[in-house]
Amino acid sequence: MTTWTSDDLGRIGGAEEIEIAALRPDGRLRKPVIIWVVRVGDDLYVRSVRGATAAWFRGTQARREGRIWADGVETDVSFVTADHGSDDAIDEAYRAKYRAYATTHVPPILRPDARATTLKLVPRAAGS
């Protein structure tokens, strides 16, 4: 596994939204979807607002690899199930970053079914 560069952390973590696409079992990318991303320390996290039934999330579970696009960064990633001991910090990152949506869109991303889908985005070296 590789680590994020400071530039990538800033650009991806600072992006309002990212595009994310999981790899299919045959290695082709699924259709990208737009989701929110948050940064906690030197890690990036995403959640499925619709829980584990969302198509994009189900797609991440097959190969646990995919690609993201954000603020001019395009990179291959691994989808790692997050340590749920970090859920409170991730919740706070969602509240802080998306405070403009505090009464509408943030509460669903903090629900238990969404928290259960928290994925850490880990950069993959080319060809891995």
Short key terms for the protein model shown above:
128 residues, alpha+beta, Pnp Oxidase, Chain A, 7-stranded antiparallel sheet, 7 strands
Brief digest:
The chain contains five helices and seven strands, in the order H-E-E-E-E-H-E-E-H-H-H-E.
Description:
The protein has a single domain (6-123), classed as Roll (Pnp Oxidase, Chain A), CATH 2.30.110. It is 29% helix and 27% strand. It contains five helices and seven strands. The chain has helices spanning 6-14, 55-63, 87-97, 106-109, 112-115; strands spanning 18-22, 33-35, 38-40, 43-46, 65-70, 73-81, 119-123. The radius of gyration is 14 Å and the shape is globular. The N and C termini lie close together (9 Å).
Secondary-structure element pattern, one letter each: HEEEEHEEHHHE
How far the N terminus sits from the C terminus, by CA atoms, comes to 9 Å
For the record, the count of structural domains works out to 1
Count the helices. How many?
5
- In helices, the fraction of residues equals 25-40%
CATH topology: Pnp Oxidase, Chain A
By CATH reckoning, the class would read Mainly Beta
Give the low-confidence spans.
none
Give me the count of strands: 7
Which CATH architecture? Roll
Biggest β-sheet: strands ordered side by side in the sheet: 2-1-5-6-7-4-3
C-alpha Rg (nearest Å)? 14 Å
